[in-house]
Amino acid sequence: MEKLVRGIHEFQTTHFNEHEELFTKLSKGQEPEALLITCSDSRIVPDLLTQTQPGELFVIRNAGNIIPPYGAANGGEGATIEFAVAALNVSHIIVMGHSHCGAMKGLLNPDGLTQLPLVAGWLKHAEATRRVVTECYQDVSGDDLLNATIKENVLMQLDNIRTYPVVAARLAKGELTLHGWVYHIESGQILAFDPELSKFAPISLDQVKPAVTQKMTIAPQQKMAHSVAA
Asked: Does the pTM exceed 0.70?
């Protein structure tokens, strides 16, 4: 706790003063370009990974970067998506999973969650991910299976996001783009899903073009090779 307090003091005495003009502007409103949905994992620092400033990212964080389909839950995820799209007019929604995800480990091993009933209940919103992995990756195990689950979960949450009326409307008008990313903690690499290739690939400056009208799923014939190569 002492480290946190010292950090607050340093922010107030150094960083805030250096960016006082920015914070004064932000006190009057926000205009983020993107909504980033990612995991609560302490190893994920969105502003650091994207090198963004305060006010540039609107963020949802929870265990497993899970978004229940429209009407399936009363949590804050749906309200936050609605506000980001309808009130803040974000142009992009990104779902970013990450390597070594504890939530996805729990999804694959539900028997280990007997002492975490709330976690087990939350992961039921990712049941579609678990079913896809169970039926399509029967010959995969260990880290390869976990990596495949992390990627499939990102795609499944993008499908869930499409069920929100405000998202569906903006997609139909071409005013919103959806992106699926996976961050590798150990290398710093971020993979982005390319719907034309039906696979995740290292993100690059010329890859800001996911086709939002296409259903983002990994092609069945590429699932095995993709998971092993992850």
From this structure: yes
